C-alpha cells in the first residue's frame, strides 16, 4: 500500500464534521444564506490538503515536464502510462467506495482533487474523462456483478475508460443518436458511429449509448476493447488539448453480451444527463485549478519582465489585469466550494435516510443540477478570461508555443463546449429552476409577486452602514429581486413560447450566475472576518467591493436586455425602473481597490488569495 493510501486510511477513521443545513437547489434566489451556513476553502483540513498536494506533486513531477511530449502524441503509450501511475498512487480512486478498492472519500474532497489536477493541460482532460464519464456510469448504474468486475480495474488504472455518446448528427440533442442495438439470442449487436470520444484511442472499456429498436430513449452498453467490429479513426487534429486522445469510434455488428447492458432499457438518456451533471461541476473545479496556475505564471513573468527600467508589474495596466484575474478566480473558488458542500450534505442526508450510496450521490447532485450548470459556465468563462489576459501580460512571448500560457489559452477554449455548450447550460439553468417552481418545489412565483408588489411601493432607503457588509447583503437581496422580477414576468408574458426565446433565457441565466457568485464571495469574506476580525482583511474586502460593483452593471444590462425583449408600455417603464433600483450600488474607487488586490498577489509572486 502506498504512503498516500495509508494516510487516506487514517483520514477515514477520523470522525466526520457535522452536516450543515443545505438549501434546496435554486432556493438561493428566494432564501437568505448566512455566512455560517457555507463552507469556505479556508476550512480545509490537513488531510484534504494532503490529498490535493499529492495530486499537485504528481503533476509537477510526472506530467508537466512532459507537456510538450504529451502534446506531440509521438508516443501513444505515454498518456495511458501516466494514468496508470496516477492509479497506482490512488489518485484515480479517490471517490470510489472502499468495497471496490477505492479511497471512499466524500464528494467535496473529490472536487478538491479535481481542482488539484486541473492545471495539467491535456493530462487533466484525460484523467477527468477517465475518473468521470469513463468510470461513473458503471459505478452509479452498473449491477453488482458489473461493478465488481470493472470498477477495481478502472480505479487502479489497470483499465482505462471512455464514454461514447456524441454522434455526427447528435450533439446537444444527445437523445437523437442513431446508433442501434438489436437483440440476437443471448447477445446484443451494435451498429453506428460515435465522435469526439475522449480517451478513445487507448481505452479498455467503452460506455456506449444506442437506441433499441424504435425506442424513444437511449439505452447503454459496456463494450470491451478488442471486440470484433469495433474500429477507430485516426486521432483528431485539434486547436488545443492536443495530447488528449480524441477519436471517432465505429461499431460494425459489434457483439455485446446481454450481461453488459448497463441499467434498464431506455435508461441510457437518464444516465447521460446525470453523468453530465457530475461532469459540469467537476469541470468547474478543474478550471479553477488551471486558472490559479495561469495567475501564478503570469505574475511571475510580470515581476521578471522589465520595460522602461522597471518590472511591468509596477504599471497600472498590468495591475488591472492581475487584480481582475485574481478576483475572478477567487469568486469562482468561493462559488464552487459553496455548492460542493450543499451537494455533499444532501448526499449524506439521503444516505442517512437509508438510500443506497450511489443513488444518494446521483440524487444529491441532481438536486443542484441548475447550480452545476451555472458553475460550468462560470468556470469555463473565468478560465478563458484568465488565460487571455495571461497571454496579454506575456506580450509577444505569450504567442510563442514555448510558453505555458500559449498552451493554456488554446486548451481553455474547449471548456465552453465540453459537458454541453455554455449556451445550452445557460438555458438549462433557467429551465430547471422554473420546472422546480412549476412542480411546487420552489415558491418562485410567490416571491416574484412580492417583488412586483414592491415595485408599486415606496423604495426602502434603510441604512445598513452599522452592520458588517450590511449594504453588500442588501445589494445581493436586490439582485435576487431583479432576477425574480425578470424571470417571473418573462414566464407570465411568454408562457409556452419562453423556451423559444433563447436570448431572454440567457439574459436571466447571466443574472442568476452573477447573483450566486456575488453572494458566494460575500459570504466567504464575511465568514473570514467573523473568524479573524477585520484587521488585515483589506484585500478580501476590496475583492467583495469591486466584484459586486462590476456585477451590478452586468445584472443591470442583462435585465434591461431581457425586459426590452418582451415588455412594452407601462409594464416596460415600471420594470426598467425596477431593474435600475435593484442594481443601484454605492460608488467605489475600483481602480485603487483592484490595485490593492494586485499588489498582494505581485508581492507574493503567485496566486495567494
Layout: helices, strands, pairs:
Layout: H1 3-13, H2 46-63, H3 67-72, H4 78-89, H5 107-116, H6 122-131, H7 136-141, H8 144-156, E1 161-164, E2 180-184, E3 187-198, E4 205-212, E5 219-224, E6 230-232, E7 246-257, E8 261-262, H9 268-304, E9 306-307, E10 310-311, H10 316-352, H11 357-367, H12 369-394, H13 404-412, H14 422-438, H15 444-455, H16 470-494, H17 502-532, H18 538-566, H19 569-582, H20 590-604
Parallel strand pairs: 1-4, 2-4
Antiparallel strand pairs: 2-3, 3-7, 4-5, 5-8, 6-7, 9-10
Helix pairs in contact: 2-5, 5-9, 9-10, 9-12, 9-13, 10-11, 10-12, 10-17, 10-20, 12-13, 12-14, 14-17, 15-16, 16-17, 16-18, 16-19, 17-18, 18-19, 18-20
Amino acid at each position: 500500500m502506498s504512503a498516500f493510501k495509508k494516510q487516506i486510511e487514517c483520514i477515514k477513521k477520523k470522525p466526520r464534521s457535522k452536516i450543515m443545513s443545505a438549501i434546496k437547489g435554486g432556493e438561493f434566489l428566494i432564501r437568505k444564506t448566512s455566512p455560517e451556513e457555507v463552507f469556505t476553502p479556508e476550512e480545509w483540513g490537513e488531510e484534504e490538503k494532503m490529498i490535493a498536494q499529492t495530486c499537485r506533486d504528481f503533476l509537477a513531477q510526472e506530467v508537466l515536464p512532459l507537456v510538450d511530449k504529451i502534446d506531440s502524441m509521438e508516443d501513444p503509450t505515454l498518456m495511458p502510462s501516466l494514468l496508470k501511475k496516477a492509479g497506482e498512487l490512488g489518485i484515480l480512486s479517490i471517490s470510489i467506495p472502499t468495497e471496490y478498492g477505492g479511497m471512499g472519500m466524500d464528494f467535496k474532497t473529490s472536487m478538491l482533487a479535481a481542482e488539484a489536477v486541473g492545471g495539467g493541460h491535456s493530462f487533466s482532460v484525460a484523467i477527468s474523462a477517465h475518473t468521470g464519464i469513463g468510470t461513473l456510469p458503471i459505478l452509479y448504474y452498473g449491477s453488482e456483478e458489473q461493478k465488481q468486475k470493472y470498477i477495481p480495474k478502472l480505479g487502479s488504472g489497470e483499465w482505462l475508460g471512455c464514454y461514447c455518446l456524441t454522434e455526427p448528427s447528435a450533439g446537444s440533442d444527445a437523445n437523437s443518436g442513431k446508433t442501434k442495438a438489436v437483440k440476437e439470442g443471448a447477445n446484443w449487436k451494435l451498429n453506428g458511429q460515435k465522435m469526439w470520444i475522449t480517451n478513445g484511442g487507448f481505452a479498455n472499456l467503452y460506455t456506449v449509448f444506442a437506441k433499441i429498436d424504435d425506442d424513444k430513449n437511449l439505452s447503454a452498453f459496456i463494450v470491451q476493447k478488442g471486440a470484433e467490429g469495433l474500429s477507430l479513426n485516426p486521432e483528431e487534429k485539434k486547436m488545443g488539448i492536443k495530447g488528449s486522445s480524441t477519436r471517432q469510434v465505429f461499431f460494425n455488428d459489434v457483439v455485446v453480451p446481454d450481461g453488459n447492458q448497463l441499467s434498464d432499457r431506455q435508461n441510457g438518456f437518464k444516465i447521460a444527463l446525470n453523468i453530465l451533471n457530475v461532469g459540469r461541476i467537476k469541470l468547474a473545479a478543474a478550471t479553477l485549478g488551471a486558472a490559479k496556475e495561469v495567475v501564478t505564471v503570469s505574475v511571475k513573468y510580470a515581476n521578471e519582465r522589465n520595460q522602461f527600467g522597471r518590472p511591468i508589474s509596477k504599471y497600472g495596466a498590468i495591475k488591472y489585469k492581475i487584480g481582475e484575474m485574481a478576483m475572478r478566480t477567487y469568486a469562482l473558488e468561493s462559488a464552487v466550494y459553496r455548492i460542493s458542500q450543499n451537494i455533499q450534505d444532501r448526499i449524506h442526508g439521503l444516505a442517512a435516510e437509508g438510500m443506497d450510496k450511489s443513488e444518494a450521490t446521483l440524487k444529491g447532485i441532481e438536486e443542484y443540477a441548475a447550480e452545476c450548470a451555472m458553475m460550468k459556465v462560470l468556470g469555463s468563462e473565468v478560465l478563458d478570461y484568465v488565460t487571455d489576459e495571461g497571454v496579454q501580460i506575456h506580450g509577444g512571448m505569450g504567442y510563442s508555443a514555448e510558453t505555458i500560457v500559449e498552451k493554456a489559452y488554446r486548451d481553455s477554449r474547449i471548456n465552453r463546449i465540453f459537458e454541453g455548450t455554455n449556451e445550452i447550460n445557460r438555458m438549462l439553468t433557467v429551465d430547471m429552476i422554473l420546472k422546480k417552481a412549476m412542480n411546487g418545489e420552489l415558491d418562485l412565483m410567490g416571491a416574484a409577486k412580492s417583488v412586483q408588489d414592491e415595485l408599486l411601493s415606496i423604495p426602502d432607503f434603510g441604512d445598513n452602514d452599522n452592520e458588517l457588509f450590511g449594504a453588500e447583503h442588501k445589494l445581493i437581496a436586490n439582485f435576487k429581486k431583479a432576477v425574480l422580477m425578470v424571470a417571473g414576468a418573462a414566464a407570465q408574458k411568454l408562457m409556452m413560447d419562453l423556451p423559444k426565446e433563447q436570448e431572454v433565457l440567457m439574459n436571466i441565466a447571466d443574472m442568476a450566475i452573477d447573483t450566486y457568485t456575488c453572494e458566494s464571495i460575500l459570504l466567504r469574506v464575511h465568514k473570514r472576518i467573523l473568524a479573524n476580525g477585520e484587521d488585515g482583511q483589506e484585500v478580501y474586502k476590496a475583492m467583495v467591493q469591486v466584484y459586486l460593483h462590476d456585477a451590478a452593471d452586468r445584472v443591470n444590462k442583462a435585465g434591461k436586455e431581457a425586459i426590452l425583449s418582451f415588455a412594452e408600455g407601462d409594464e416596460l417603464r415600471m420594470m426598467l425602473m425596477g431593474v435600475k433600483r435593484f442594481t443601484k450600488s454605492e460608488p467605489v474607487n475600483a481602480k485603487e481597490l483592484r490595485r490593492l488586490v494586485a499588489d498582494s498577489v505581485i508581492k507574493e509572486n503567485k496566486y495567494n488569495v
